[in-house]
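Example record for the data management plan.
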Amino acid sequence: MRPQPLIAVNDVEASSRWYQRLLGCRGDHGGPEYERLLDGAGRLLLQLHAWEVKHEHGEIGDASQPRGNGVLLWFEVDDFDAAVARGVELAAEVVLGEHRNPPAGEAGGPAHREIWLRDLDGYTVVLASPDGEAALDAAERSA
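Corresponding structural encoding:
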């Protein structure tokens, strides 16, 4: 099983460019109504859909409501430092700055680094390094 999240956005083409730059992925559909974003191996990462387009399924959301309340779009990236730099280049709003999860000095958990950003539509996007990437060394564990 693989998740295939779809989010409604104001400008599919602008959001596609933003996510492609941030995640280093590529578009697979294109156009102003719908986009599929794929990773380097051709796996679907994210779908973008215009709010006002109904297609055969009808409306998928209410554009007057807050975007993604309680939902985080979470991406594990192999190139965490480069992805953070791309977020800076995009001038993405930082919701929660770069940090270790769990907090520095605590053992357990995913032991990775994260940064939480805001996309063009107000969705929270989390970039995370691979689990274990920020494991504590022996000195930190004994402190």
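Summary line stored alongside the record: The chain has two domains: 1-60, 67-143.
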